[in-house]
UniProtKB/TrEMBL annotation:
Principal localisation: membrane
PANTHER family: C2 DOMAIN-CONTAINING PROTEIN, DYSFERLIN-RELATED
SMART domains xref list: C2
Family: Belongs to the MCTP family.
Subcellular localization(s) per the UniProt record: Cytoplasmic vesicle, Secretory vesicle, Synaptic vesicle membrane; Endoplasmic reticulum membrane; Recycling endosome
Record organism: Camelus bactrianus
GO BP: regulation of neurotransmitter secretion
Entry protein name: Multiple C2 and transmembrane domain-containing protein 1
Record's bilayer topology term: Multi-pass membrane protein
Top-level taxon in the UniProt lineage: Eukaryota
Repeat among keywords: yes
Amino acid sequence: MYQLDITLKRGQSLAARDRGGTSDPYVKFKIGRKEVFRSKIIHKNLNPVWEEKACILVGHLREPLYIKVFDYDFGLQDDFMGSAFLDLTQLELNRPTDVTLTLKDPHYPDHDLGIILLSVVLTPKEGEHRDVTMLMRKSWKRSSKFQTQSLRLSDVHRKSHLWRGIVSITLIEGRDLKAMDSNGLSDPYVKFRLGHQKYKSKIMPKTLNPQWREQFDFHLYEERGGIIDITAWDKDAGKRDDFIGRCQVDLSALSREQTHKLELQLEEGEGHLVLLVTLTASATVSISDLSINSPEDQKEREEILKRYSPLRIFHNLKDVGFLQVKVIRAEGLMAADVTGKSDPFCVVELNNDRLLTHTVYKNLNPEWNKVFTFNIKDIHSVLEVTVYDEDRDRSADFLGKVAIPLLSIQNGEQKAYVLKNKQLTGPTKGVIYLEIDVIFNAVKASLRTLIPKEQKYIEEENRLSKQLLLRNFIRMKRCVMVLVNAAYYVNSCFDWDSPPRSLAAFVLFLFVVWNFELYMIPLVLLLLLTWNYFLIISGKDNRQRDTVVEDMLEDEEEEDDKDDKDSEKKGFINKIYAIQEVCISVQNILDEVASFGERIKNTFNWTVPFLSWLAIVALCAFTVILYFIPLRYIVLVWGINKFTKKLRSPYAIDNNELLDFLSRVPSDVQVVQYQELKPDPSHSPCKRKKNNLG
């Protein structure tokens, strides 16, 4: 094994691929057919400066390092700008070497496509397999490949923190942005990038002075800080988005534990962006080896219980709870290699926190015995545990996955989870043994339920899917049909189709209208929740498995990732791209509408008891308030709060508490995905112990 350290310095006199006589170049590094590194995009520059570093593990030196340069085209096939290769056998070991590579196009060898300047160091890796913990990230590209970055556990400290701190960013507004549309306005949005982490703001239509009021967090991995790259864009339906400008934030120049208001001038464009940036200490995210409980562990647990006790309600409201995941072992995994074995490793994810175990080579029954700890920001988060097969020649192979809502976890119980497929709709081969502990403050968790969910930054882009479009349409149709059937029922009362029923409805209508008070609305909802709760505890559960949604999910076809081509002419015209974009938008709207209706239904069905109890508390409070306080006073207080909110807090982020609450309730699709599969009795821990004794 060899370690190849590469510094991508810059490019000179690269080929122009855009109509403006420039390009948006980025560089791919490949060994064999596997992409091992991809640089950031430098916009509108034929002499880009990257100064990016990459560390690559090389199994042997026979395969050369291929360098391919592309021009980024939003929504279209990226243009090929040239390629070169580096013969690794010609490098001297342990000696930095500056390399100048001339880019060529195999189809047009006479064309001058510029040069790429690198610095490389090749170092032999000595010793046998070591315990390595890996931090995984998915690259933000159209394919779903991911790269891994090794991180060795400290031999001195029992636990090691994987990131140094949190960067909290609030995008406030833009001022005097450049007009990019023919109407003298723009539809601006902003992209942020810190290392491999990315965030995209919402689009503000037809304005040069947008008000975003969006907040998000990045992990800070470097002790000295880092550089946040910020680009502003104008959204154009059916064609490439227009570049408005760019700027950067040097985090090393900002003091910690303090909020900084920054007004940043956009380079290569016009206008300013206004941000609030806060650097805080790292949350407790760590990895350790599984060992027998020691007095030190018991003392630490007591401190954690004290930290999240009911008496510390108002201490750090963002720190809702503590999660400990013990990844013990897996059994009966799928054989992914030609030898009939696999090289499995395990990925543990909670929102944007993702950690990996070491790889156990050539084993279908691996034992990891690792302990992962996370801070919980939202008790409604879902813990995802995925098993992959490590493959040096290409991206890792998927072996199985489970998704576990934190509120469904039974503390301290070692449990065998049947692995599911990528869509989490059906079983795949193997089970994984986990022991999970969740400690949280219920009051903090309730308060956090009423603020926006944390957005997941590392996820695959939406793609057009006929099956997904059909599924969302059927889901929305079912929700709409509930309202239609209710309307038919009411209309039948008006038509006196059944005289006794119509007479009863008429008397009830007169009574309710004559005696109506506003507090009766939450009271009726409260009675509905209570009625369903008593049905559940009495054994008359009216919740049924949604076999229709389950069948639709199982019928969805997996869309395989396609390798990027070296060079290909643009075969898609702007109209085709526009149709695809509209279809994706319709697909997502159908999903949102269907999910909204299903979330309301599942609130009253006690799908998540914690949320149903929270709804009962809220409805009780609303009932009492509306009963004792006249409506005019409530409306007056609400209006004063709304009118003075911006005066009291100029940078407050708008939100809707009801929608934030419903966003925590799982839709029918999520209920099916989070449903546990019954394990094979042969995999039970008790039977395993008996077999060992026998």
